[in-house]
Amino acid sequence: MVKALVARSAGADLAVEEIELPRPEPGEVRVRIAAAGVCHSDLSMINGTVRPKFPLVLGHEAAGVVIETGSEVRRVAEGDHVVINWSPACGECAFCQHGEPWLCVTMEGVTSRPRGTLADGTPTHVTLGVGALAEEVVVGEGALVTVSPELPMADAALLGCAVLTGVGAVHNTARVRQGESVAVIGLGGVGLSAVAGAQLAGAERIVAVDISADKEELARTCGATDFLISNPELPQVVHSLTDGLGVNHTFECVGRSDTIRAAWQSTRRGGTCVVVGMGSRDDKISFSALELFHFARTLTSSVYGSADPDRDIPGIASAVLSGSLNLDAIVTHQISLSDVPAAFDRMRHGEGGRSIVLFT
Ligand code: APR
Ligand code: ZN
Ligand code: ZN
């Protein structure tokens, strides 16, 4: 039995419960989790934004050590330090074949299958096929990316979601180039990673935006050159900072129609507006036919940083180890499993950066 943070239903109180995980099947691996982040997508699982199956073990942003391998496992061995990739590519579907592993369709099959049981024998689901807010997980070997033991586990955990998503949105989706200008709206783990990624890409002007003044210092430490509190005049202010043009690229890291709209209007003609946040199906947004034509902007989304995790997680890990990508400002709270509900409360109020559960 291992301890795990379980949601019995949407809106129910969370509890640390004992769960029984299955032995690894062929191609599967048991990982002892060392560090796991509290991501907004976990909150979206329990607040009605998305509708997963319950009971549900939360958590999908994590790193740990391989402790048991099933038969036919080739990618990892016992003792390896691994980052968990919550969107392992099958390599065979139309998207994988087209070089878009982040859109792989096998994901749905992985996430809808229960994994493990609660103490009373009830089968439990695990968030995004992982369920990483737990002492251990059992995942397919394709979900594991080996990293150097020198990489601190808290940083490694972030590489599994926030950092891959934020840095990937900048480097892979928008392909930000040296000297360009960007704006990042929403400065949680994902947005702060986008700011750090923009600095790594050599962006000259990095405008960071949030509703919480708390975030200014964190954003500036990650590389922001300007900080603005979100307000209805945001696009005009961004234009005034950029010779009336708007920024080359905007990254919406909240998941709301009003901030997507603000990001869109803050983007210069011909620029790219990237939706990184995961919003709800009911939150609608509209564009006039004329503005879509006139502004010649690209509106796109970035799912999991448009990343190939097998390529990009090692690349980002090297950038962290060499000091060129500094993640120090992103983690503001190191907590234990029972503190996760308080971390969700901070998240609801826009307080702090990432909270990371450290398992000892
Ligand atoms: N304008 C600007 N910032 C806002 C607004 C707003 N209207 N509303 C919320 N924010 C800020 C919050 O203050 C917080 O700093 O957005 C940030 C969101 O951060 P987190 O809740 O920590 O979320 P994070 O884990 O970074 O994920 C961001 O990406 O992957 C998706 O599902 C995830 O939609 C979520 C988004
Ligand atoms: Zn996440
Ligand atoms: Zn696939």
TrEMBL record:
Its cofactor is Zn(2+). This is Zn-dependent alcohol dehydrogenase. PANTHER family: ALCOHOL DEHYDROGENASE, ALCOHOL DEHYDROGENASE CLASS-3. Belongs to the zinc-containing alcohol dehydrogenase family. The lineage of its organism: Bacteria, Bacillati, Actinomycetota, Actinomycetes, Pseudonocardiales. The keyword Cell membrane does not apply. It comes from the Bacteria. The keyword Metal-binding applies. It comes from Haloechinothrix salitolerans. InterPro entries: ADH-like_C, ADH-like_N, ADH_Zn_CS, ER, GroES-like_sf, NAD(P)-bd_dom_sf. Pfam families: ADH_N, ADH_zinc_N. Gene3D superfamilies: Medium-chain alcohol dehydrogenases, catalytic domain, NAD(P)-binding Rossmann-like Domain.
